Amino acid sequence: MPVTMPHDLPARAILESEKIFVMSAERAGRQDIRPMRIAILNLMPTKVATETQLLRLLSNTPLQIEITLLHMSSHVSQNTSAAHLEAFYSTFDEVADEHFDGLIITGAPIERLAFEDVDYWPEMTRVLDWTRTNVQSTLHVCWGAQAALYHHYGVGKFEVPKKISGVFSHRLTGAKSPVVTGFDEEFLAPHSRHTDVHAADVEATGAVDVLAISDEAGVFLAATPDGRQVFVTGHPEYDADTLSLEYARDVAQQAAVAAPAHYFPGDDPTAVPLNRWRGHGHLLYTNWLNYCVYQETPFDLA
Predict the structure, then answer these.
(1) How confident is the model over 112-151, as pLDDT tens digits?
(2) Alpha-carbon distance 118 to 104, whole Å?
(3) Which of 13, 125, 143, 155 has the most crowded Cβ, counting Cβ within 10 A?
(4) Catalytic residue among 51, 111, 140, 142
(5) 3-class DSSP state for residue 124?
């Protein structure tokens, strides 16, 4: 939310240069305020857990937010009951004529498939095209980020020799964006995926800036300069035990699986992991809501 202060206060110019949202008392008095309409296209098989993780991050703001949960009508969920989807979710076709302030497109454990081989890819491309006209800003997560970079800009993904799984150190690239306001120059974030994108390919689009990168996990955060599209290849929304649960699942399916890197204390898979990325996860989503959605979206969405 903005800080209201006099025009001639010395701190004002400094804060404005740092992209801090400030306004005069006159403008504050004329403010019309309404709830932000945020949709979540939940592609994860563990839909309830993902709902909870994302809503926790979205709730850490003074903004009033109305949530619309979406699922793909062209895909039958194997892990979420039809009753849950019927009660709480809409399909894309049901909202295609509506406008939203923001949209979050989650990841999905399908990154080894070619995009065109995903059963709901045609519907996914319709959603991605729709975001350009009906959504102020879209936050793409993990596979959702790779899918959008591929569809919008032709950025291909490649399979890595070993799954990128763990909690990795990242550094800011120096590219200017309000999305990273308040970030430490080095910070931690979880990743869990079998594919990656090249930072050079993202930069070569001429339309997307790489904002944060890891020597071990590659690109973490990228965005268009106008904030209309934000791409997060990791999972800052993960709970402390999410990687542990994924590791147990993978071990059950395939014995020779490496434990998530830099995750378990002392690299001991029997130890209880700590959440060391929560602060930057909240900051990322708060910055997105503030700078890319709230400050930019029109009052009349239509």
Answers:
(1) 999 999 999 999 999 999 999 999 999 999 999 999 999 9
(2) 19
(3) 143
(4) 142
(5) helix
